[in-house]
Amino acid sequence: MTDRAELDAKNSDGARDLYRKRRDYTRYSIETAVQGSVPFKILGSRQQINFRSMKDFEINRKYLIGKVSSEQYAILPNPSKIKNIKFSIEGTNVSALDFVQTSFDQMAVRYSELRDERRVVTSPDPQVSLLEELRAVKGFESSLRTQLQNIQGFSSRFIASLDKPTKDRITSLKDFVELYIAFLLGPDVRIPYFLSDYIKSSFNPQRTSGLVIELSDASYGDDGAKVNDFLTNKNYKKLVGIALEYGFMIDKQIPWRLVADVNSRAMRQAMRDNGFESGSIDTVLEEYYSIVDLNDFFLMIRDMYRAYNSFIRTNSFSNRTGTKQEDESRVIIRNPIEIMQLSQIPTSKWIALFIRLKNKSSGINMGHIELKRIISTETEKVGYVSLQNIVTSINKKFNFTPYEFGSAAHRTLVRKKRFERDSEDPREEIKDFYVASLMNQY
User: Fold this and answer.
1) Residue among 5, 396, 343 at smallest CA distance from 196
2) Under a CB-based contact definition with an 8 Å cutoff, are residues 176 and 98 in contact?
3) Which of 70, 262, 315, 412 has the greatest number of beta carbons closer than 10 A?
């Protein structure tokens, strides 16, 4: 007895149908690409044909490739290493890391040669002609730029939400910051506040790694388009084969997405072509990426300063008539502040606010007792330890990436921990406790 696999899921489908169709797509997408037609479900186990270059990036959280260092710090591609792709859709400006650009452009040239040799199918049929040539449609986009826009949106929403009685309570930077922090800690803010946490979250597109090139702008949620336009395309097997040859993996869930395999021979050669004698993964990351975690604190300070002055620009004057403010002046006059006036709030207070925001933004959500302990430990260092070292210490307590148990990344971390002998430090014991607590959530 067989049932027809349904591979046409759309986000608008009902929950039950969406679950079933997504399950079918996950099971049969690679097999569909191999056979060129939609397969049938067979009851019982079935050996799935696996193209080596087609990967499910949801498994073991492979979507963190190019976003997280081996030490679990969030990373950003170095802007100087981003290069424009020559073989992109006309009128577009698509880019990627230099070795990714080099490898893709070489692959596009080779694909054109195969077409000229009639080894790539050509046809007036739009479904076939979609892959008659390789052209990049989407590439690198800046997660820093996107997150700065997100943060500006947080403050704009907060200011717009203030009613008159609440505004009348704001007479200083301290008043504003307390209300703004409460808003950021509330349920209305779902996107992580800090850049490092945003980079590692599901809100951050994979294209921000600089390793990704997409051949279409089709909807990620339309499984029917994935099957009809790509998996059953007469040229798709050719794409899969040439992608492997030039060092690209293909995202099983998004079959027009190419992801550079930095361990592949082709990508290592492309690095050498760009003047970098590649070594270990760590050396590649050091060459092409920068750690961003230490910027979180200063981005928070920047946001508080900008948000407060933005509030003042539209609320420089307020008449308290109609608001119960006994024994106080009826008129509030607010003036913009200079950056140095942020010192009105003591450093220890800024550190405490940073920790509270980090607790939510990281997704760890420690309990009150654990959080209070960290705030006490870190604020007591003010005046004795540099601000950078304090922020580093805080990040170590919250900087945990939820790799799945048994994944390659998880095994690497276990091996590193086995050879480290720093657990005698009480802070490291606390850190280990938080790691265990996080792992239990998955």
Assistant:
1) 396
2) no
3) 262
Q: Is 259:267 a contact under the CB 8 Å cutoff? A: no
Q: Where are the beta strands (DSSP E) in 82-169?
A: 82-84, 95-97
Last residue of a domain, one of 228, 252, 278: 278
- With contact defined as beta carbons under 8 Å apart, do 180 and 159 qualify? no
pLDDT at 191 over 80: yes
Can you name the residues that pair with 385 across neighbouring β-strands? 382
Q: How far is CA 77 from the centre of its chain?
A: 12
- Rounded CA gap, 159 and 292, in Å? 28
Report pLDDT digits (tens) over 121-144: 888 877 667 899 999 999 999 999
pLDDT, tens digit, for every residue of 238-254? Answer: 999 999 999 999 999 99
Longest alpha-carbon distance in the chain: 88
Pairing of strands 317-319, 2-4: unpaired
Contacts 24+ apart (CB under 8 A), 166-170: 167/315, 167/318, 168/318, 168/320, 168/323, 168/325, 168/332, 170/311, 170/315, 170/334
Domain containing residue 419: 368-442
Beta-bridged to residue 35, according to DSSP, are none
Give the ranges where 201-330 is alpha helix by DSSP (H): 223-225, 236-245, 265-273, 281-288, 295-314
Higher pLDDT, 47 or 195: 195
Q: What pLDDT is attached to residue 420?
A: 47
pTM of the model: 0.83
Query: How far is 373 from 350, CA to CA, in rounded Å?
Result: 16
Same-domain status, 260 and 372: no
The per-residue pLDDT for 185 is 96
Is 294 among the domain residues?
Answer: no
Domain count, the chain: 2
56 Rama class: left (phi>0) / alpha (psi -120 to 50) / beta: beta
Question: Would residue 337 count as lying in a domain?
Answer: no
**Cβ–Cβ under 8 Å, residues 144 and 199:** no
Radius of gyration of the chain from its Cα atoms, rounded to whole angstroms: 26
Cα angle 124, 125, 127; round to 5: 135
